[in-house]
Amino acid sequence: MPLSAAHFHIQWATVLIVGLGACLYDPDDVCSRNQERTDTGLCECVAGTVPVGATAGCELCGDHEVAAGDACICADGYARAAEGEACGLASGGLAAPCASGSLPCADAAYDYCRPVDGTDGYCTSTGCTGSDECPSGYDCVEDGATRYCRRPPTGQGAPCATGADCDGYEASYCETYQAHICLVPDCSISPDSCHEGWVCCDLSSLGLSETLCVENGLCPTG
Amino acid sequence: MALVVAGVFSAGEIQAQSPVAPAPANTAAVAADTAEEDAIAAELRAIEEEESRLHIYGFADFTFTAFLMDESSRWYDTYFSAYPTFAVGNLNLYLEKRIAPRWSSLIEFRLLYLPNGAEEVSDSGVVTQIDTSVLDYEDQTEYLRWGGISIERAWVEYRIHPLATLRAGQWLTPYGIWNADHGSPVLIPIRRPFVIGQSLFPRSQTGLLLHGSRAFGDQTLSYRLTLSNGRGPADTYLDLDHNKAVGGRLALDTPWLDQFTAGVSLYTGTYSARSRSYGLRNDEVVADDTLIEGYRELAMAADLRARSGPLLIDTEVITRQGTYADAARPPDLLVPTEQQPDYFAYGGYVLAGVRLPWLDLMPYVMGEYMHPMWATVPHIWEGAIGINMRAAPTVTLKTQFQGARFSGIRNPVMPDEPILAWEAQVAWVF
Amino acid sequence: MRSILATGALLAAITAPAPAMGDKPSYPTTSPTRPILVIIASSSTVDSLSLDDLARIFDGQTPELHPLNLPPGSRERIGFDQLVLGRSPDDIARYWIDRKIRGQGGPPRVIPNGRLLARIVARLPGTIGYTVDGPLPPGVKVLRIGGLSPDHPRYPLFITEKPR
Fold first, then answer.
1. ipTM strictly over 0.95?
2. CB distance B3–C57 less than 8 Å?
3. Yes or no: domain C31-160 corresponds to CATH 3.40.190.10
4. Are A42 and B339 an interchain contact pair (Cβ–Cβ within 8 Å)?
């Protein structure tokens, strides 16, 4: 073979070898961001990340979130104030104080923040069909589309001597004639807004322009 | 010496000129010359017609396949039929024409019985065959099963220069030996190697292909450069990204031995599959376009065909690497909760045959190995031994025994058990 | 005796491998031979071709030139295919079938005899053919092959005369 032809073939072989060495594939980086290789050689989400759909890789869970299956959930002690919002420091269990939008209820069993005063309220559960499904002392009531377990009014039945003793309670009226206990004033007769076991009593026939929640059977006007 | 004839022929095509033969000298000679002139005129007409004729031809093959595994083989539960089968496999038609000076066209399509008989899996996991039977409108008493057509290639090309011809349309990807040989009467074995069947290079592409060759003494260097849509869910007519695929091939044909042709091929492109969902914004329709699978790929191959007397050796080595887009990595078929990793697939085969002087018989052996691109698919080893007989230039008879094994990775639908098959085929050109 | 020699020479000629470029062709010297004349239109600028070039043209790899062939089975065709392409008639048939299936085009047009072929070449610039039949008509010229004209003793293309 002439020398020029030999050179030609050497160049040809060089092109071949260099070409076959070119790489797109990196054996140390075969998965997407936030993924790692499993024992079977496939790619799965690393701890703290969750898959985005079937093909869109894995996304890191946010602050105070942990991966659980395909979703990021709030870590213990944290909860979302509303769907889609970040996890924030959460309140405790049943009856714990909460605030819609700022202090969510952490306990999954009592994750409903029932507003009492503006956005502030207490943690309870929803979805009851009767009071027997509610914690002791709670009754099942409906508010719009939501049925929830309502706690007893604060202070209801607490002993008092003067009106000052009931200040700060929902039962802010001190009945000083006979029972000397705090009662819930300004209740609604129909429908009856008083807690289970109590009844809204219209005292107007006695010259008092008030309605009060009194224990069943103790309403003097009927 | 390189042949340089550029510019010699004005249009590059055949054009008849007026006769220049001298006038005949006597009556007998006049008669003879008249007859000859008629013959020349007839040939010229025939050549002219030949130039513009639509050539219709094709090939077909008929194969008997029997798997020889034990009845208890789990392969019968997953992939292969336990029942020996006759089949008309390929039925390909070619339409070829020189459509104008320097312009030519080739269209090839394969006629299929599919989708009739294709397997489909119900939600409950029951596998049945698709039945395309419909009442024949021409004869309402009879059912017919309709089939399909696969367009294999459809291109037009223009010879720009003796060293450059530009092809446009759908063409077979220029790589290796097998994809170029293409037709069953030309191919020596019955079954293509896995490394070819798995399409590490796309089998065909749609776009532009520039090709040509140049002789250097007794050697010829040929090239192919390609620009195409690349791969995609509908790549024959729709590209779903801005990245065009590019590729090429260089082949050197030398007179060493009786034939020694070596080639290297390359292809790189981007695959994109998208979904689109629609919604309303300000009373106007808006589309949300999502890349559901996307990857970049680079495929490289080297091939060699050597022939010395009756001995023929074909070999190809092919690699394919792919990296998925972070947000468009497909789930694994077996473990849908996990996704497929980037891959480096490779494989190759060696085929050796000896053309015997009797009956145009060619005993051959073939061996191959393939490391597939899917993490949960085992490595493939395959060997075949057979006889190819060119009963006539247009008729090829083959018989082949082959064995394969998938091993190295546990896969519930690809058991680590041998696959054994015997096949016989007649392939013909018409 | 002459007949035996001529037959042997013919066999030798049609079974000999094609000479590679630069090789001295092995052809009989004891039997009468006739050169195969490779012809092209006089207007062509091509005057000489190597055997490799000629093989590429008749293999369909040089689209600028349209080869014209003689009928399969003719002495000239068998000799030409063997000397230039190194293939037997069956090999040639297979070669063109395979090329068609690969989508690489069909074989050269076949012209019934060399005399007619020469006249067609004279009238169709862009065609190239071969013949042993003379005299050649006006409008064609004979190409040198490997730089050698047909009257050169080492001219590579020839067939033996038919035994008489």
1. no
2. yes
3. yes
4. yes
